[in-house]
């Protein structure tokens, strides 16, 4: 029997709930996602059964699924439990893998893809075999509690990604009710706030020790050592260095232009190259083999994400990380140089000011930053004796 909904009504439906009759509803979220839900009472308690996304389940199919579920109820069987038994509810792992594959198309670098894969496969391992609709707060806490205070940053990311997976499962009609991984108004009552936990800052080498370190670094012939020195001289992120391509570099104008899709802030960033940085690149240009400045062992792939960290390990450098050299540069610029904060922050590719200020800040102060990076390179090449010339406006 025909219900109240039509294909046209479904296509144009705004956020809300729309009944088709016989307790079948179309639910439209604030994001525009549409799903089918059947409401029924089981042993005196109201229940909701997801019947799938409206983009994949037609109106006719939704009505047929609802009719089948009602017949199951009439036989004294809970259709939700019956569906679990016949395997039509995917596991958390299956939903997580599908979501990761879909989202990874928009990720800017391979490292981010690897992090998503690692957290959902390793830290969330206890959830992977569970049907996605039965995962509750206790299951989520069992994953988070062992790492919440010891690996605060990682735990926060794990929680957010579990929440994302469960939201995706709900959007597809495989879950109902509140998300047990939600922070605000839920887990914030059960776990200490992340701001109260010890944050995992990247260990940084004191800037006074950088020049002596580079002297030792230059004695190593590995391309990863050259990548690390270039990373230090440009104050770039490791992913930006490892993904550097020859098409991004203009050695004549001494500028490296990192495209927006490889930048954390999602916008193009020009890096002025100091004489030493240019010298490194000209040396590498003679050995050019492919599009990447630092090619890896695999064809058409850059060096591994761990290549520069391994250099530090082999040199027995403790309490310092590759990313930490950005902090070394920032401390040097703030304590030793006289360059304005805005110039230094722009050199680090940090977003400065609110949206209004950003709209007016059209230029990237390239020439001012060139003087800054030249002086940093000089400091890095002259152990304990580098002198900084005061910047004049």
Name the CATH superfamily classification of the largest domain: Intergrase catalytic core
Question: Strand sequence of the main sheet, in spatial order?
Answer: 1-2-3-4
Which word captures the global form? elongated
Name the CATH class of the largest domain. Mainly Alpha
Helix content range of the residues, please?
40-55%
Give me the secondary-structure category: alpha+beta
**What is the CATH topology of the largest domain?**
hpI Integrase, Chain A
Strand content range: 5-15%
* CATH architecture descriptor name of the largest domain: Orthogonal Bundle
What is the makeup of the main sheet?
Answer: 4 strands, antiparallel
Number of helices: 16
| Terminal residue distance | 79 Å
Q: What's the alpha carbon Rg, rounded to whole Å?
A: 28 Å
The unreliable regions are 196-200, 354-362, 385-393
Q: Averaged pLDDT, please?
A: 86
Overall domain count: 3
Q: SSE string, helix = H, strand = E?
A: HEEEEHHHHHHHHHEEEHHHHHH
What would you note in describing this structure?
The chain is an alpha+beta fold and 393 residues long. The protein has three domains: 7-85, 2-Layer Sandwich (Double Stranded RNA Binding Domain); 92-196, Tyrosine recombinase, N-terminal domain (DNA polymerase, domain 1); 207-381, Intergrase catalytic core (hpI Integrase, Chain A, Orthogonal Bundle), CATH 1.10.443. The chain is 45% helix and 10% strand. The protein has 16 helices and seven strands. It has helices at 7-12, 59-74, 79-85, 92-103, 110-123, 137-148, 152-171, 207-217, 223-234, 238-242, 275-285, 307-314, 324-335, 341-347, 355-360, 366-381; strands at 16-21, 24-28, 34-42, 45-53, 249-250, 255-258, 269-272. Strands 1-2-3-4 form a four-stranded antiparallel beta sheet, covered by helices on one side. It has a three-stranded antiparallel beta sheet with strand order 5-6-7. Strand 1 and strand 2 (24-28) form a beta hairpin. Helix 5 (110-123) packs across helix 7 (152-171) and helix 6 runs antiparallel to helix 7 (152-171). It is elongated and about 85 Å long. Residues 196-200, 354-362 and 385-393 have low confidence and may be disordered.
């Amino acid at each position: 029997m025909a219900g109240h909904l039509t294909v046209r009504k479904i296509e144009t439906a705004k956020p809300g709930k729309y009944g088709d009759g016989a307790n079948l509803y179309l639910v439209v979220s604030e994001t525009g996602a549409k799903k089918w839900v059947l409401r029924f009472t089981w042993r005196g308690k109201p229940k909701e059964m997801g019947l799938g996304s409206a983009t994949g389940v037609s109106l006719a199919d939704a009505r047929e699924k609802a009719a089948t579920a009602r017949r199951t109820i009439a036989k004294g069987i809970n259709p939700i439990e019956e569906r679990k038994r016949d395997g039509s509810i995917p596991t958390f792992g299956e939903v997580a893998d599908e979501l990761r594959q879909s989202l990874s198309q928009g990720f800017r670098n391979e490292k981010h893809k690897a992090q998503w894969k690692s957290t959902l496969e390793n830290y969330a391992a206890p959830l992977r075999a569970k049907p996605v609709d039965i995962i509750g707060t206790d299951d989520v806490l069992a994953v988070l509690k062992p790492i919440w205070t010891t690996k605060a940053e990682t735990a926060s990311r794990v929680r957010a990604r579990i929440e994302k997976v469960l939201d995706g499962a709900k959007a597809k009609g495989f879950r109902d009710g509140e998300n047990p991984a939600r922070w605000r108004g839920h887990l914030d009552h059960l776990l200490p706030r992340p701001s109260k936990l010890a944050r995992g800052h990247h260990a940084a080498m004191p800037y006074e020790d950088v020049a002596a370190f580079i002297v030792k670094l230059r004695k190593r012939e590995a391309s990863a050592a050259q990548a690390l020195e270039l990373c230090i001289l440009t104050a770039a992120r490791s992913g930006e260095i490892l993904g550097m391509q020859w098409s991004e570099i203009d050695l004549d104008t001494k500028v490296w232009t990192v495209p927006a899709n490889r930048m954390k802030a999602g916008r193009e960033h020009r890096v002025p190259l100091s004489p030493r940085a240019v010298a490194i690149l000209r040396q590498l240009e003679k050995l050019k083999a492919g599009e990447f400045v630092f090619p890896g062992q695999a064809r058409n792939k850059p060096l591994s994400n761990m290549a520069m960290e391994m250099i530090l390990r082999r040199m027995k450098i403790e309490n310092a990380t590759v990313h930490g050299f950005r902090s070394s540069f920032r401390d040097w610029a703030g304590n030793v140089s006289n360059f304005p904060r805005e110039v230094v922050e722009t050199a680090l590719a940090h977003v400065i000011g609110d949206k209004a200020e950003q709209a007016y800040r059209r230029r990237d102060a390239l020439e001012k930053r060139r003087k800054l990076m030249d002086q940093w390179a000089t400091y890095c090449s002259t152990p304990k004796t580098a002198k900084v010339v005061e910047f004049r406006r």
